[in-house]
Amino acid sequence: MSQASELVDRQIAAFNHRDLDAFVACYAAEARIAQPDSSMLASGHPEIRTVYGELFRQSPELNAEIRARIEVGSFVIDEELLTGFVMAGMPPSYMRPRPTESLTD
């Protein structure tokens, strides 16, 4: 398992446990998280903490299951099945690809 894959696995575990501190620690201080339509969801640790803190509070059954993974160098692309997701305008479960590159410095 690559270092990038191990980092993504830590991020997914923190997400599934709704451990906000561990989740935010997986990201570089200046990380930007984009929506599927390329709009910005959060930029930097404070915004990531705010957005995901609210998601974790509203989603006690939140879970991400990795259905497929592709790794190329420092890139990890996961197909996730999200369930228990409670956020305005989003369905409670859906599949999405999640490309990731070097989450932390």
Describe this structure in words.
The chain has 105 residues and is of the alpha+beta class. It has a single domain (3-101), classed as Nuclear Transport Factor 2, Chain: A (Roll). The chain is built from 3 helices and 5 strands. It has helices spanning 3-16, 20-25, 44-58; strands at residues 32-34, 40-43, 63-72, 75-83, 94-101. The strands form 2 sheets. It has a 3-stranded antiparallel β-sheet with strand order 3-4-5, with helices on one face. Strands 1-2 form a two-stranded antiparallel sheet. Strand 1 and strand 2 form a beta hairpin. It starts with a helix and ends with a strand. The mean pLDDT is 86.
Strand proportion: 25-35%
Oligomer: single chain
Give the overall shape.
globular
Distance between the termini: 19 Å
Give the total of beta strands.
5
Structural class: alpha+beta
Q: What would CATH call the architecture?
A: Roll
Low-confidence stretches: none
Query: Can you tell me the CATH class?
Result: Alpha Beta
Q: What do the pLDDT scores average to?
A: 86
